[in-house]
């Protein structure tokens, strides 16, 4: 069956998510390699390509991390073909070491790096504007604003990359990547050429990196000339606007909606810039000459704002006096996402046409209704999640050990262990793999008087992504800590993509699994393994690890409950003996629902006993092991 995204139907209109539109642009560009590490909001790009791979002459893979993904994609461009890598803002930090050398060595074919930022940190641990890397690396940067542009500019990015011999950055944000709109398809490419590596043209920066940097600057100036006539930059509005909005990316939608809502199309002009580095100087100067007041509308940092202000300062003698407003002046919020209400309020204030976006009484009414009708809910692990059992065992083991031990962790589903879901057991959390790295440092402090046990925690996908170097470092230097690998057979937080331990590829092909235990043993670590559902065995294993001198590894192996459901593994069944349940007289006021807090468990206010939501209970049976009266029991299922 032909995947819809690969159909040969030029001029057909499809409703596509922004990331799907980018994937279609990659297909229309004829890319030969697509590689990524999953990270929202970028994951859908390679997810889409992987599902369509059977219909494509394209290698699609989930790489072990973002740096490797970019290196794999660059291989295509070094042999005259086209490659693409996609990642979120955090991932670009991982890939930048390679990127900021590749810009100097250059490429032969086309290479596009798609970066999807996450303003407000909806699915991230931070807000970060990755566009700053374009300026740092002196690399072309394109920012689509519409779903059609997401597809078309992706294809154009490959063409630009080949013209310049440079990687090209394509920048998206959550609201573009994950929203949907109409996209008119273009034609599919013809047959691809044969890859060939030309040894007479090496991709190296030495022995004269200064010369390579000089060539890079020449390329970026050529790019500026190309951008001067780009149709992705345009102005709409009156010839002499009272206010000019200079915008890019998703900011275009907010600008258009704000102007329309207030009926300001004869007073406000919109200057849309899709080529945000290097800026098209002549194009911008032409339109700045008719501006009196400029407002910058962009997600993230004031990147476009800073660039235009620098340009204005350089040419101020030939330009009118302009008042600039944006994020730098605090006219627009410097954190979080923009939205149409923000634009409506700002334009109403500037042009003396205030409009209340939502009446204050409405806001108060909504808050009151929410307070009354919606119960407070913390972030929680799914019913049957093995991580809940793991953190319970960690909590018990550290308490029994009595030496005030602590946990160094990182990012994944298990990151919720830093909050109520994991009883605040995770005490540090930065980047992927940082739990092992920080613990390696903490383990050195035992020689300086640190007498608290150190535990590091990491997921299975994160282990392959970033923990291995830290473990090698810890082994070499004899750091004293216990390393827990929470192996749930999935890159669960980003959509259950496969990793090297699962024996399959992004396209579903069989692959030799790389066992975590084997890697750790090869490094010289003593390795133990147990099932986190077995609370006693897990607690005992952690206790042994806390007492052991030197670095060691404990693998807590249990398939993610959601993956098990997808695989058709039948759930178990937990039942309640109401005669044994003592309700609020149990433990710290209902042990199972107020302390353990699995979503599959609830409270019956009529019977004053626990109740089981059989619709979501997975029958893992962990609750039966924490119930002090034995009221919760597992029942055999057929």
Tell me about this structure.
- The mean pLDDT is 92.
- With 638 residues, the chain is α/β, with parallel strands linked by helices.
- The protein folds into four domains: 4-191 and 202-228, Rossmann fold (3-Layer(aba) Sandwich), CATH 3.40.50.970; 234-350, 3-Layer(aba) Sandwich (Rossmann fold), CATH 3.40.50.920; 386-566, Rossmann fold, CATH 3.40.50; 573-635, Alpha-Beta Plaits (2-Layer Sandwich).
- Strand 17, helix 16 and strand 18 form a beta-alpha-beta unit.
- The chain starts with 12 loop residues before the first strand and ends with a strand.
- Helix 15 (434-442) packs parallel to helix 16.
- The protein is built from 21 helices and 24 strands.
- The chain has a seven-stranded mixed β-sheet, with helices on both faces. It has a six-stranded parallel β-sheet with strand order 16-15-17-18-20-19, with helices on both faces. It has a five-stranded mixed β-sheet with strand order 9-11-10-13-14.
